[in-house]
C-alpha cells in the first residue's frame, strides 16, 4: 500500500510486540509496519509477544534494553480507547482498534 488511507476498513492485523507490561497490559510497538496508521486503523489488532518479554511495571519497561530509545515512532498499546461525553454515552475504540488481543509466544525466536 502506498497510501495509509487504504488501511481504512481493514478488519484485522497481526503485529509483533517487543515488551509487555504486566501491571497494565500495555505492549510496546515500535514502528515496523510501513504505515504507523496500521496500529490504529484496523478493527482488531493481534499482537504476538514473546513470553519472556513481559516485565512487571512501566518503569521496568522503559529501563529494559529492548525499549530502544532510538526509534522514529513507537507506542504502548493497551487496548481499545474509551471515552464518554457529557451525556455519558460511552464510545469504545474512538482512537484505535475496537479490540486488542495479545498472544504470548514461546520466546524470542517465535516472534521473528
Protein architecture, described:
The chain has one domain: NagB/RpiA/CoA transferase-like (Rossmann fold, 3-Layer(aba) Sandwich), CATH 3.40.50.10420. The model has no long low-confidence stretch (mean pLDDT 83). It has helices at 38-41, 58-63, and strands at residues 12-16, 19-21, 27-30, 44-50, 54-55, 74-77, 82-84, 90-92, 99-105. It is built from two helices and nine strands. The protein is mainly beta.
Topology at a glance:
Blueprint: E1 12-16, E2 19-21, E3 27-30, H1 38-41, E4 44-50, E5 54-55, H2 58-63, E6 74-77, E7 82-84, E8 90-92, E9 99-105
Parallel strand pairs: 1-4, 2-5, 4-9
Antiparallel strand pairs: 2-3, 3-6, 7-8
- Tell me about the biggest sheet? 4 strands, mixed
The Cα radius of gyration reads 15 Å
Which regions contain 5 or more consecutive residues with pLDDT less than 50?
A: none
The percent range for strand residues is: 25-35%
For this structure, the CATH topology is Rossmann fold
Care to count the β-strands? 9
- CATH hierarchy, class: Alpha Beta
> In terms of structural class, how would the helical and strand content be classed?
mainly beta
- The proportion of residues forming helix, as a percent range, comes to under 10%
**CATH homologous group name:** NagB/RpiA/CoA transferase-like
Q: What is the mean pLDDT?
A: 83
Strand order of the largest sheet: 5-2-3-6
- Total of domains: 1
Helix/strand order: EEEHEEHEEEE
Name a few traits of the molecule.
mainly beta; Rossmann fold; about 35% strand; 9 strands; about 110 residues
Q: How would you briefly describe this protein structure?
A:
The chain contains two helices and nine strands. With 112 residues, it is mostly beta strands. Strands 5-2-3-6 form a four-stranded mixed beta sheet.
Amino acid at each position: 500500500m502506498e497510501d495509509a488511507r487504504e488501511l481504512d476498513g481493514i478488519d484485522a492485523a497481526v503485529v509483533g510486540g517487543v515488551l509487555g507490561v504486566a501491571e497494565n497490559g500495555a505492549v510496546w510497538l515500535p514502528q515496523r509496519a510501513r504505515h504507523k496508521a496500521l496500529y490504529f486503523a484496523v478493527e482488531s489488532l493481534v499482537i504476538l509477544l514473546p513470553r519472556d518479554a513481559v516485565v512487571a511495571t512501566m518503569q521496568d519497561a522503559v529501563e529494559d534494553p529492548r525499549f530502544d530509545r532510538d526509534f522514529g515512532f513507537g507506542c504502548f498499546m493497551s487496548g481499545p480507547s474509551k471515552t464518554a461525553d457529557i451525556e455519558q454515552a460511552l464510545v469504545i475504540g474512538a482512537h484505535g482498534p475496537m479490540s486488542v488481543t495479545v498472544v504470548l509466544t514461546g520466546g524470542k525466536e517465535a516472534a521473528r
